[in-house]
Amino acid sequence: MNLASPRLEVSIGTQRLRLYDGMKLVREWPCSTSKFGIGFTEGSNKTPLGRFVVKEKHGDGAESGTIFKSRQPVGRWVPGMDTKSDFVLTRILWLHGTEPRNANTYQRYIYIHGTNDENAIGRPASHGCVRLRNQEMIELFDLVPAGTEVWIEE
């Protein structure tokens, strides 16, 4: 599917990520934002609000469950492995804040990414990032280019 004008909206209140093509809703998935709430301070582990763009994409072609550290593949997570760690899995959309209040988002390493804790999807559970189920992350990654606008709202 080719989208002429993709954009993303993340609702912290409903824990949903929506993909639009212009004004038309194309896909919607449950997600997980920060269990520590909303915030902009580095080291707070909180999810920032406002307007962002997808600055970088990482993981194209990686297997579902690929573990990334510093955006590099370092192994593969399989069910039954550690679920207490907050692994960054499968694909990464690295966000860049475009407003003064969220301008440090890129330096805070705020991503949209897959997770090893798929049972927590639909409720706040992350350390600031927006998590998706791994297969849904692959679908999203394939649909949006770098430069896609992202809006995170309460």
From TrEMBL:
<dbReference type="GO" id="GO:0018104">
    <property type="term" value="P:peptidoglycan-protein cross-linking"/>
</dbReference>
<dbReference type="GO" id="GO:0008360">
    <property type="term" value="P:regulation of cell shape"/>
</dbReference>
<dbReference type="InterPro" id="IPR038063">
    <property type="entry name" value="Transpep_catalytic_dom"/>
</dbReference>
<feature type="active site" description="Nucleophile">
    <location>
        <position position="129"/>
    </location>
</feature>
<keyword id="KW-0449">Lipoprotein</keyword>
<keyword id="KW-0378">Hydrolase</keyword>
<keyword id="KW-0133">Cell shape</keyword>
<dbReference type="InterPro" id="IPR050979">
    <property type="entry name" value="LD-transpeptidase"/>
</dbReference>
<dbReference type="GO" id="GO:0071555">
    <property type="term" value="P:cell wall organization"/>
</dbReference>
<dbReference type="Pfam" id="PF03734">
    <property type="entry name" value="YkuD"/>
</dbReference>
<comment type="similarity">
    <text>Belongs to the YkuD family.</text>
</comment>
<dbReference type="GO" id="GO:0071972">
    <property type="term" value="F:peptidoglycan L,D-transpeptidase activity"/>
</dbReference>
<feature type="domain" description="L,D-TPase catalytic">
    <location>
        <begin position="6"/>
        <end position="153"/>
    </location>
</feature>
<keyword id="KW-0961">Cell wall biogenesis/degradation</keyword>
<dbReference type="GO" id="GO:0016757">
    <property type="term" value="F:glycosyltransferase activity"/>
</dbReference>
<protein>
    <submittedName>
        <fullName>Lipoprotein-anchoring transpeptidase ErfK/SrfK</fullName>
    </submittedName>
</protein>
<keyword id="KW-0328">Glycosyltransferase</keyword>
<dbReference type="GO" id="GO:0005576">
    <property type="term" value="C:extracellular region"/>
</dbReference>
<dbReference type="InterPro" id="IPR005490">
    <property type="entry name" value="LD_TPept_cat_dom"/>
</dbReference>
<keyword id="KW-0573">Peptidoglycan synthesis</keyword>
<keyword id="KW-0808">Transferase</keyword>
<comment type="pathway">
    <text>Cell wall biogenesis; peptidoglycan biosynthesis.</text>
</comment>
<feature type="active site" description="Proton donor/acceptor">
    <location>
        <position position="113"/>
    </location>
</feature>
